[in-house]
Amino acid sequence: MEKVASSIEQALIEIQGVSKSFGNVKVLNNISLSINKGEFFSLLGPSGCGKTTLLRIIAGFEKPDSGRIIIDGVDYTDAPPYRRPVNMVFQNYALFPHLNVFENVAFGLKYQNLSKFEIKKKVLEALELVQLSGFENRKPSELSGGQKQRVALARALVLKPKVLLLDEPLNALDPKLRKEMQIELKKLQHNIGITFIFVTHDQEEALSISDRIAVINNGQIEQVGTGYEIFERPRTEFVANFMGARNLFNAILHRLGKHIFEVELPNLVKFRISMNDEKIKPIPDEFKFVVRPEKIFIRKTPLKNSSFVSVPATVESKLYYGASTSWILRANGFLIFVEEQNRDVKFRQDFYPGEKVYAVWEKRNIVFLETR
Amino acid sequence: MKGKIYWLFLVPSAFILIVFFLFPLLIMFYYSFLQRGVYGGFEPIENVKEYIFNFIWLKNYIRVFDPLYIPIYIRSLYIAFLTTLICLLLGYPVAYYIAFKVKPERKILYLFFIIVPLWTSFLIRTYAWILILRDEGLINLLLMKIGVIDKPLPLLYNEFSVLLGLVYGELPFMILPIYASLERIDISLIEASKDLGANEFATLKRVILPLTFPGIIVGVVIVFIPTLGSFIVSDLLGGAKSMLIGNLIQNQFMIARDKPFGSAIAFVLSAFVLLLLYIYRKFLGGKFEVL
Lengths: 372, 291
Known about the structure:
The complex is a heterodimer. By secondary structure, chain A is α+β, with helices and mostly antiparallel strands. Chain A has 2 domains: 10-236, Rossmann fold (3-Layer(aba) Sandwich), CATH 3.40.50.300; 245-368, CATH 2.40.50.100. Chain A is built from 10 helices and 20 strands. In chain A, a hairpin with a 2-residue loop joins strand 9 and strand 10 (220-225). The longest helix of chain A has 18 residues, at 175-192. Chain B has a domain at 68-257: MetI-like (MetI-like fold, Orthogonal Bundle), CATH 1.10.3720.10. Helix content of chain B is 71%, strand content 0%. Chain B has 15 helices and no strands. The two termini of chain B are 33 Å apart. Classes of the chains: A alpha+beta, B mainly alpha. At the A-B interface, strand 6 of A face helix 10 and helix 11 of B.
């Protein structure tokens, strides 16, 4: 029975219309989300966007002004943290300094009616899971940042929560260790199958680690989707901008036929596109679209191909990053950012400031934004 | 150059400590080996050899342990212990309340209320208790007026009034160090505890109390030591039966005019306190670095 059910994606956590204010500041505004069983779900947004507050509401440290938190069919909105089937990994790890590693990991097992032998067995298993066997008697002050991180993980996971909440847990680690921990976290989550809700402000981290991402801004959800959707098909200007789609164009749409449109970038270029029915509706006469920098390339001549757009521009500057090169072009008031992978030791083409060129992109790389 | 000049900053305080603290202490130490003269003062030492080898210099210290005085020591320890315990039981909740339940911007106000009695002389505040506790005092008059009692309750000149005065005087010194250690606790540790399944009480027991242990120890020490040597409260609020070590020492200096014996008791008391601190360090000091 259960196995059949688990093969179908089912919502484990339902966040229903949660709002929260601190004083006059509205931190969360009517947030609704459903997170599936076994999912690695990220809350992504700039600092102060409310993502940590949402996590703390799920954990029970804050009470929402309105809305419900349903976990596995049970309403936990008013339950204290110690009655919730969730556990948290804190940003600063929050290991108990007066207890050693073993005692830290065993802390919550005390409330599960286990024998001493069972507790010991579970703690040792959890420490093995995070590769810290043999560290039982160390004090937190004797551990490195990465090791503390693992203890914090073991301490939460040993309780077999339905959901593990992680509040920017990798922030304090150096970049190399951070990358390693990302891979390890992802692997761990896959192996144990517990739902993770992961708060981060790092786009790349969220993309690489998550099954799905909710981008949050100003206490509201901007977009929920897979990493691919968030990155390649941002729906709002904020998401596009936050994910680094820097080329934002204001355009005017002229309808030519049932599915044929002309897009006009005033004083710059006009090009035709065709759209199917479902795309047509949300786009008004004046709208915005983005093209990601890496989807644009530079040519000395326009590309005479109907599936490409060529925009005349002037080279403004060039930034060499080693793996890639960044170009900034100016096209009649617009700045166009171009990013090129350096795939060969030899530059494909080099351009000089002031040079007249064309910024070229394929029409399918245009992302139309919703207007609010 | 730079490093060398800093010791100059120590000179003023070192001067005060040496001249007004260490030096008098040495004089008292010397006194404690002398004998009281017939009219107070000191008996001159006529034969140094005899004085040393007949252990006349130890006489005061032997007398300290005279069975006559033992009940006083026991009572003093008992009173000091009880005062410390009551201060701890009353002070911890207050410190906890201010640290965790009072809004940050109002904490200063609460701490101010705890410190403000210290602005008045302890002697005056102790006298004030007499006005409150005596037969015609505030409490008894009030209770008789509203008809709860017919005749005054014996509130003054007993163990109760001594304990009350001591607890009243020492409570701020228990609250402040505990408050300081509570303030230092990382809030996320308390949240982590609750997150892991511990309710409010279990969190207090397993996280907050152990982490504030240093503050508790500081509070206990700075309440217990002065209480053990106190004499003003028992003098003013205590009856004839409530003589404490402090009174005994004071009597030797002021009434019996036996400075040598008074000094000897004072040094035995100091030695006892140092021994307690040593035991604490030896058995707990490694675990919690406080003193």
